[in-house]
């Protein structure tokens, strides 16, 4: 099912045919460097596709979506909206992962901008977060570059992990084995 489209991209539910291109991304240590669970196996990738095949099981309008090039059908990544509880507060994360061969081509920005607009206009969300691991400086800089140009009324914040382990209330409803992070909040402000 198609969730949304941009000039160059189609975002749709992950399906079994996406396992090979997604596994290629998930097994790459450079692409997965800042993910708390590191690289994933083919079986873990398959289970994630099954988990999100119809959206998030508890929040079907959210989930991770295949991100496909409109003209070629190529799979440059996956993006989406993920539900979390952080410090007792329900949050929705703007999540993205793009093939390193496609970095610096504007795919993440194009997908994220469309997802933010979708979240605000179609889902009525007024706040999104980006979860960013320690040392991921490119992801710290990236949201501030495009956030200022958004034409929707939505608050963007990013949450920087101060460590990759420790006590926290970060949970993904219904998912087992999720590693917890400690967070220090930083509100997203447009640079002057």
3D architecture notes:
- With 192 residues, the chain is α+β, with helices and mostly antiparallel strands.
- It has a single domain, classed as 3-Layer(aba) Sandwich (Aminopeptidase).
- The protein is 23% helix and 30% strand.
- It is built from four helices and eight strands, in the order ββααβββαβαββ.
- It has helices at 19-26, 42-52, 107-121, 137-147; strands at 2-5, 9-13, 63-69, 77-86, 89-98, 127-132, 155-163, 182-187.
- β1 (2-5) and β2 (9-13) form a beta hairpin.
- α1 (19-26) crosses α2.
Q: Helix count? A: 4
Domain module count: 1
Query: Can you tell me the overall shape?
Result: globular
Using the coordinates above, name the CATH class.
Alpha Beta
Assess the beta-strand content as a share of residues. 25-35%
Strand order of the largest sheet: 1-2-3-4-5
Structural class: alpha+beta
Helix content: 10-25%
Instruction: Report the order of strands and helices.
Output: EEHHEEEHEHEE
Radius of gyration: 16 Å
Task: Describe the structure concisely for a colleague.
Helices cover 23% and strands 30% of the residues. By secondary structure, it is of the alpha+beta class.
């Amino acid at each position: 099912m198609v969730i949304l489209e941009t000039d160059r991209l189609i975002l749709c539910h992950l399906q079994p045919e996406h396992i090979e291109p997604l596994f290629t991304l998930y097994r790459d240590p450079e692409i997965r460097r800042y993910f708390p669970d590191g690289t994933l196996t083919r079986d873990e990738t398959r289970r994630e596709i099954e988990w999100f095949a119809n959206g998030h099981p508890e929040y079907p309008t959210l989930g991770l979506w295949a991100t496909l090039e409109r003209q070629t059908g190529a799979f440059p990544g996956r993006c989406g909206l993920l539900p979390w509880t952080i410090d007792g507060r329900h949050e929705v994360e703007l999540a993205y992962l793009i093939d390193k061969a496609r970095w610096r081509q504007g795919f993440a920005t194009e997908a994220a901008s469309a997802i933010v607009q979708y979240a605000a206009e179609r889902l009525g969300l007024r706040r999104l977060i980006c979860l960013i691991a320690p040392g991921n400086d490119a992801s710290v800089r990236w949201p501030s570059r495009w956030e200022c140009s958004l034409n929707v009324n939505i608050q963007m914040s990013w949450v920087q992990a101060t460590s990759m382990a420790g006590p926290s209330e970060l949970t993904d409803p219904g998912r087992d084995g999720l590693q917890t992070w400690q967070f220090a909040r930083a509100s997203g402000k447009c640079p002057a």
